[in-house]
Design goal:
CATH class: Alpha Beta
Largest sheet: 4 strands, mixed
CATH architecture: Alpha-Beta Complex
Structural class: alpha+beta
Shape: globular
Low-confidence stretches: none
Number of strands: 11
Distance between the termini: 15 Å
Order of helices and strands: EHEEEEEHHHEEEEE
Strand content: 25-35%
Number of helices: 4
CATH superfamily: 4'-phosphopantetheinyl transferase domain
Amino acid sequence: MSDAPPPVPALGHDEIHVWRTPWSGGAGEVAFASLLAAYAGAGSPSIERGEHGKPRFPPPFDTLGFNWSHSGDVAVLAAGRGPEGFEVGVDVETVRPRARALELSKRFFASDETAMLEALPDVERLPGFLSLWTAKEAVLKAHGGGLSYGLHRVSFSLSAGVVMPAHFEGDVGPASGWRIQPLSLGEGLVSSVAWRGHERRVRVFTFPL
């Protein structure tokens, strides 16, 4: 069996590639490492970890930004190219009953976001909560600060199930510099991908194990 990385579609500066794969005992992370080696090309280095655990490539390979997330038995990888230090973040959550969604929102979200969730009909509250949660996580994972930065410091508006950046505090701001896009990964999953900079086409692929 060849150890060569698998072929991947060409990834330009106008796209974000998202890969979905099963997650079982870390097998998804192994698959992602092979995909990233293929994107990086000859001389692909080992994946490093930032201060808060975010995976990355060292210079000069840091023009390829990437991030992964998993929930239940599904994992997703997002990758994009940009200037040195380009970053992308992704989060996926499995839809399941969350009786404490409003309690979590009051504890971790901005007050305006909690008010928006409280105003929603019951049937729309969980999807709204997960849309906000995955958008926040995607931004903070791209930024590199993770949850320790504070979910309330990246706030969004929520209208008809669509989240839009509203106010980002500190060095993650301004909100206008970010692009956040929901991902359609199938029933039972809510996911978002985020990056700084211009609009890009997001393409979703499947990596079977």
